[in-house]
Design a protein that fits this description.
By secondary structure, the chain is of the alpha+beta class. 26% of the residues lie in helices and 33% in strands. Strands 4, 5, 6, 7 and 8 form a 5-stranded antiparallel β-sheet that branches. It has a 3-stranded antiparallel β-sheet with strand order 1-3-2, with helices on one face. The chain is globular. Keywords: Ribonucleoprotein, Ribosomal protein.
């Protein structure tokens, strides 16, 4: 699940790791694509096949993840329209949103004019 993925990445960067391997899921891959396009990660690459797929993540030491705030959780889902997505930490962070067009950053969802479930803030 994306919550575990974000915390693993943050902890690996705090420990000074350069790479991280996690199990592959489609949802996690979509979150990794958002983090990669925002500059928090250098590269993520799927390795293996079948049930044994893993994702090797190359972390970006120049822009480490300093904090993660989980907005929506299984017991309390948070939804918003595209006009309600706010900037995170004055533009230094990103909002991760699950929309009908896939998992996008808050800014990309605003551009596409789609709302959805606000998953997490990353800065």
């Amino acid at each position: 699940m994306y919550i575990d993925l974000l915390i693993k990445i943050k902890n690996a960067q705090n420990a000074g790791k350069k790479t991280l391997k996690v199990s592959h899921t489609k949802g996690d891959q979509a979150v990794l694509n958002v983090l990669e396009s925002s500059g928090f990660l250098k590269k993520s690459e799927v390795k293996g096949r079948g049930v044994k797929k893993v994702v090797e993540i190359n972390l970006n030491p120049e822009r480490p993840i300093q904090g993660v705030k989980l907005i929506s959780r299984p017991s309390l889902r948070r939804y918003a329209g595209y006009g309600d997505f706010r900037r995170v930490k004055g533009g230094r962070g990103i909002l991760i949103v699950s929309t009908s067009k896939g998992i996008l950053s808050g800014e990309a969802a605003r551009r596409e004019k789609v709302g959805g479930e606000m998953l997490a803030e990353v800065w």
